[in-house]
Amino acid sequence: MAGFRAIHRVRCEQIWLDDGWAREQLVEITPEGFIAAVGPAGETSVDLLLTGPVIPGIPNLHSHSHQRALAGLTETRTPGKDDFWGWRDLMYRANRAITPDDLESIARCVFIEMVKQGYTVVAEFHYLHHAPGGDRYAQVDEMSQRLWSAAEDAGISLVLLPVLYTYGGFDQQNLKGVQKRFYNTLEDYLILLDKVRKSADGLGNRGYGLAAHSLRAVAPEQLATLDRVSRVDHSGIPFHIHVAEQLNEVEECIALLGARPVEWLCREIDVDHRWCFVHATHVSRWELEAMAESGVVVGLCPTTEANLGDGLFPAAEFVALGGRFGIGSDSQVCSDPARELQLLEYGQRLKYHRRALVMDSDERHNGNALVHRAVAGGSQACGRSLTGITVGAPADLIELDPYSPRLALRSADEALDSWIFSASDNSIRTVIAMGREVVTEGRHAGETVATEQFLNTLKRLTDRLIP
Ligand SMILES: [Zn+2]
After folding, report:
1. H or E segment at 158?
2. How far is the CA of 38 from the centre of ligand 1 (A)?
3. Which domain CATH number covers 332?
4. Which candidate among 89, 107, 285, 449 keeps its CA 20 to 30 Å from the CA of 72?
5. pLDDT along the chain (467 residues), means of 10
6. Is 279 a catalytic residue?
7. How far is the CA of 460 from the centre of ligand 1 (A)?
8. Residue 400: count of CB within 10 angstroms of its CB
9. Is 464 among the domain residues?
10. Whether residue 212 is found in the same domain as residue 348
């Protein structure tokens, strides 16, 4: 992470700690980027003074960075194909053209967009493993290496989740066309996973986990093996899977596996806190209760789910059951955690004709309640055992801009509410990720070059992105 200033001592006028807001605190940070101490600030000299409200960085638990190239380009009406599956065809067409250089350029740009808006760690659900047509690159982890490199340049921590994608449906058809880029046998996959593990080893800003694309893309035996691998061979690393995003996916699952996707996972696999169920949009009451009891994190991506017309996850009921969730930018139509949380709450308000729903009755500020859950659930899904601004946790801090006209003259909680529900521009002034100052005065040192490279990539790709 050369190029970013290391912060060892930061003084915060208002900071969000486990037991509430505290004033005039000194946060001390180890050279490796973890919080060493938090306590009242004295007269000690500091590297940085933050006068706006300081909150933990937000984890982005579900990203496909390459889809940033397509964001905003799929809004033309195509009769008969204006649904998730029509969008997927377009996305696949775009995937066909992406080279390793392209992936690195696109990922660098979107990772910088993320970190500027308050995400400090991103879990990349990575399935674009091979060359077009399915040929292997000379280095089997070539695409993974490009993602590590892009994240280093952006200063965001990366949790890389190589995805097992073996079949093209619940009936275990072979992958066709562009899907061949995603294909791995279980044996190939475990080799790739080992390479990813080695690349992440010992680095605080790198993590890794397992992922299966979906129940339609892997066989039940593969899933059971991977669950064991996560639990035994990799000491409980995260395990992510897409579930129940589409109604016809639920129907096919019932027809071929005899149960709804979440129900099947909760009955057949010993799911627990390691697991992240991405989307889980279409669930029964029994499934909601089973997810809450097992401790899985539901990965919600509200702007993508809205964009694709997926449906509405019953977030208010899930939170009332004590269920855990985090948020993700998924298809990259939005890189702003505040907008994800706003839409998550607004979906419930529009459904129930009431306000302040994704929170408990003893909580007071909706913004605080949403951020608290996104940080806790997102950290869990990223394999982080400590969450928030606490000793031993990664030093990921974001400062809300005290001079933004939408946040100024408010208490810290009111500013947090305003960030989620009122701010229309980027209201993050400073971002510290793993103890490095990555965003200063709302700017990232690499953004101009990264944007230029991204636009050059896009120029080259555009003709091939959309027919
Ligand atoms: Zn996804």
Report:
1. strand 157-164
2. 37
3. 3.20.20.140
4. 449
5. 86 96 98 98 95 98 95 85 82 85 98 98 97 94 98 98 96 92 96 97 95 97 95 90 94 96 97 97 98 98 96 97 98 97 98 96 96 98 96 98 94 97 87 98 97 93 66
6. yes
7. 25
8. 26
9. no
10. yes
